[in-house]
Specification:
By secondary structure, the protein is of the alpha+beta class. The chain has a single domain (7-139), classed as 2-Layer Sandwich (HIT family, subunit A), CATH 3.30.428.10. The chain contains 3 helices and 5 strands, in the order αβββαββα. The protein has helices at residues 7-12, 57-78, 123-139, and strands spanning 20-23, 27-31, 41-45, 82-86, 101-107. The protein is globular and about 40 Å long. 31% of the residues are buried. The protein binds guanosine-5'-monophosphate (5GP). It holds the Pfam family HIT.
């Protein structure tokens, strides 16, 4: 069952703000408000679906296409040592927002990850990080 008032649905409708880095007809990507590392981005589908299994094949294709595109820009903007890409289905798997999304989490060899959804980032820093990714997407 899909809850149309989940946080990401409200962001997609423009009812809540976000640091958007990318949008097309099927997807939107924005900064995670509690990033596990610098440059942590979320890719959400516009199709209303709680889990990957509820998403159409076309929606899944669009989500992974955007994830790849934005992850490439994150890599160009932050030069991390690696990038983890994750997607959780169900509370038992760690999903806290019931709208399908992919995490793009840059990994830095000398830094441990911050907790999942634990520390709010300074809005100014989040905005600067978003600008770096937007600039990298522009150059791609
Ligand atoms: P999940 O736990 O469902 O895989 O991931 C949800 C993610 O959304 C978490 O990493 C959390 O930090 C992030 N998040 C929660 N609320 C908000 C919000 O209002 N705005 C943004 N941009 N991210 C959020």
């Amino acid at each position: 069952m899909y809850d149309p008032n989940n946080i990401f649905a409200r962001i997609l409708r423009g009812e809540l703000p976000c640091n958007k880095v990318y949008e097309d007809a099927d997807t939107m990507a924005f900064m995670d408000i509690m990033p596990q590392s610098d440059g942590h981005v979320l890719v959400v589908t516009k199709e209303p679906a709680a889990e990957l299994f509820d998403l159409s094949d076309a929606g899944a294709e669009a989500a992974i296409r955007t994830t790849k595109r934005v992850a490439r820009a994150v890599r160009a903007a932050f030069s991390p040592d690696g990038i983890s890409i994750g997607q959780f289905n169900g509370a038992a798997a760690g999903q806290t927002v019931p709208h399908v999304h992919f995490h793009i989490v840059p990994r830095y060899a000398e830094r441990t990850l911050r907790g999942h959804g634990s520390d709010m980032q300074d809005p100014e820093i989040l905005s600067q990080h978003a600008e770096r990714i937007v600039a990298a997407l522009r150059e791609a």
